Amino acid sequence: MNKLQWIKLKRDFDEARCILMIGPNLAGVEKDGEMLPMVEELSAYLADFLDQEGVDYDQKAKRNLPYTALRFFSIKGARRVDLEDLTKDFIQQNSQKIPATYEWLAKLPFHIIINTNPDDYMLRAMREEGKQPQSLHYNFRRDTASFVDFEKVNAENPLVYNLFGSMDETESLVLTEEDQLEFTRNMVKDDPRIPEEILGQFDDRKTYLFFGFNLENWQFRLLLDGLKLKEENTTISPSTSRFPVSSMTKAFYEERFNFQFIDKEGDAFLEELRSKVLPEKTEGEQKTEQVFLLYHEKDESFKNELENSLSQLIKNNEISLKYPENFIAGTDHAEVLEALKKSDIILPIMSPNFLADVELMDKLLPIASDLDKNEKAKLRPIIARPCDWRENQHLRTKVPFPENGEAVTSNHWNTPDDAYFNIIQALKKMLK
User: Fold this and answer.
1) How many domains are there within the chain?
2) Residue 351's CB: how many other CB atoms inside 10 A?
3) At residue 99, what are phi and psi to the nearest 5 degrees?
4) Which of 32, 174, 269, 415 is most buried, judging by how many CB atoms fall within 10 Å of its CB?
5) Could you tell me which of 261, 251, 277, 244 has the C-alpha nearest to residue 105?
6) How confident is the model at residue 326, as a pLDDT?
7) Torsions phi, psi for 92 (to 5 deg)
8) CATH code at 189?
9) Cβ 271 vs Cβ 104: under 8 Å
10) Tens digits of per-residue pLDDT, 32-67?
11) What is d(CA 153, CA 159) in angstroms, rounded to the nearest whole number?
12) Residues 60 and 186 in one domain
């Protein structure tokens, strides 16, 4: 890309005009130290069942998911729900490690991500980055209740729209060749219709970044038509050695959708993109984030352990730590509230004690929640002891620390130190 193209792309990010499109070949499964396309590995997994049941199929198409998924129904007694269950089991068992590409993409200030994979890599990567993504999906079989308030969609609260279905509603997954046909037919005729709030985001002022697509597949041409992409758009696609694009296909996409084919491979282009959009801060430009801890006095031991774990970040001036008890005796209550309101990150240490405390739950937590809602601070609960924190209106949608809300005291961790280390790693990603 030349200098003017980079200037335009940087401006598109600044003005929230850039939409990320994730193709089926971006999601990977780690095998023998190598990341392989999830759809291909899932196809090979299903083909093993065909082999076991003696089903005849084209061995050359063993890694073609739509084909093997359709041949699965040649197994006596095989049902659609069986295919969905096997797919869900495979993805859950093989998607524990988030591919590095997703971690890099999650750092970029996208507001909208269109995902064509059933996995949750993008959601998890964004949560680990400290963001709070929203998630919706399309069900090509029927209308599903879905609504998103785009006034609340931003770089810290992006929308991930799963176009080819979701693991949360496995009937929506686009798996077989017949599914692809029905999906394309229904989407093009708007029955069921993609929510207007989402379609309305696709206009001729947007720029689209395509990662992980095999553009030789004919259905993607119809997909782009269904999403109302036009030749006035800017559409950028880095190259991939696994799925080269013919000159004839390039000519079609360049003319019809104004594609710009980048010579660099996806990861190399992504690294350059990140350096242009998110330039590295120099040491002198480093900002010290103001972190405020809220906790009950009976949980002071958790506060002390957390403070010890944060000591290196404090020494490096990456954070400044405050909590009510470190103000000098006699400090006016208003001064404590002022410090809370000036915080960049607010960490309530959750426990039954916290939930039972009127001052914390009815006075300080609502203030912290309002700051988070108005994007003046980030609210992240730290789960010290098992408690019903998700029932609280201010906390139920927040990304907890440690990961998945596993309490520091739970058997999930070998030692509490493992839990605190997990908290620090997640916090460091937020600081980046």
Assistant:
1) 3
2) 24
3) -60, 145
4) 174
5) 277
6) 52
7) -65, -35
8) 3.40.50
9) yes
10) 767 788 999 999 999 999 999 999 999 999 999 999
11) 6
12) no
